[in-house]
């Protein structure tokens, strides 16, 4: 049976990483080629110096066309344990994934990001230097249920000879970015309320560490703005309807008596009036001429 591209790629990477170095090591589980465990030393000159850290990588069936998911398994003060780390090389950002990146590239990138600030990124922590140094000492005794004691997973002697593929992966690791959350605008209602964390005891911050959930707020921002827009539009429509009803109520209706007569009725009235005037004029004229004729007849009789 022909092997899939993902299996071929992972077999090749397993061959390249079969020999552990003093800085890091990685290998797939015996019964699952798509789950890898890796171990690395804390960077020298940092709060993690002397620590040994162990993590887990889950690869999709479409690898290397899709990115892996990466998490750490022992406490370190930089990344949350058992929580997927948000890197441009991880499953959080498939749009930035490049098939040329590899498992070793991801491990080297995590080592490089250990001394940097979390700045609220998903899976990031900003413990104090003292806390991180304390966790670094404790990390040496960590034992994985699948891999055993992690101290035995790294080479004892330091080797500075790097293969060409490792040199290439180190250069690629410099291109990886640690994803940060987008700033969200506080709503006017919430801007006046105080943040409960500001009123809490600052000494309790070092006793209890909570997960950073930065990107959850960005997802609700557009939905909240859309809901606000719909509410505003609905309010405008309600105000317009109320104004129309109020206008209909307050506007007095025109009295029926003052309504103008239709144009046809007006003409009929004018015609009737004119006929009446003519009839009266004719009657008066007839009466006048009758009396005039009587007067003339009387005058003729007297003369005769």
From TrEMBL:
Residues 195-211, 225-239 have a biased composition (Polar residues). The chain crosses the membrane at residues 271-289. Residues 5-155 form the UBC core domain. This is UBC core domain-containing protein. Keywords: Membrane, Transmembrane, Transmembrane helix. Pfam families: UQ_con. CDD domains: UBCc_UBE2J. It comes from Clavelina lepadiformis. The lineage of its organism: Eukaryota, Metazoa, Chordata, Tunicata, Ascidiacea. Gene3D superfamilies: Ubiquitin Conjugating Enzyme. Residues 177-239, 246-265 are annotated as: Disordered. InterPro entries: Ub_conjugating_enzyme, UBC, UBQ-conjugating_enzyme/RWD. It comes from the Eukaryota.
């Amino acid at each position: 049976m022909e092997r899939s591209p993902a299996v071929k790629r992972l077999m090749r990477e397993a061959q390249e990483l079969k020999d552990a170095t003093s800085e890091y090591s990685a290998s797939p589980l015996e019964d699952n080629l798509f789950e890898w465990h890796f171990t690395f030393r804390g960077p020298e000159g940092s709060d993690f110096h002397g620590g040994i850290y162990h993590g887990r990588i889950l690869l999709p069936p479409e690898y290397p066309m899709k990115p892996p998911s990466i998490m750490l398994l022992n406490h370190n003060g930089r990344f949350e344990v058992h929580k997927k780390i948000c890197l441009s090389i991880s499953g959080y950002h498939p749009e930035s994934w490049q098939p040329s990146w590899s498992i070793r590239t991801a491990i080297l990138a995590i080592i490089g990001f250990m001394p940097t600030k979390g700045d609220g990124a998903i899976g990031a922590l900003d413990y104090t230097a003292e806390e991180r140094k304390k966790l670094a000492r404790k990390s040496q005794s960590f034992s994985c249920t699948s891999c055993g004691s992690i101290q035995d997973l790294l080479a004892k002697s330091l080797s500075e000879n790097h293969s060409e593929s490792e040199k290439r992966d180190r250069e690629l690791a410099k291109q990886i970015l640690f994803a940060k959350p987008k700033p969200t605008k506080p709503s006017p209602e919430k801007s006046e309320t105080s943040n409960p964390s500001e009123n809490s005891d600052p000494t309790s911050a070092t006793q209890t560490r909570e997960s950073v959930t930065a990107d959850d707020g960005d997802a609700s921002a557009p939905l909240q703005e859309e809901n606000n827009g719909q509410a505003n539009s609905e309010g405008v429509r309600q105000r317009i309807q109320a104004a129309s009803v109020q206008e209909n109520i307050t506007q007095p209706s025109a009295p029926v008596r003052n309504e103008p007569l239709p144009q046809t009725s007006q003409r009929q009235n004018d015609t009737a009036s004119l006929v009446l005037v003519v009839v009266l004029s004719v009657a008066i004229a007839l009466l006048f001429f009758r009396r005039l004729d009587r007067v003339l007849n009387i005058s003729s009789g007297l003369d005769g």
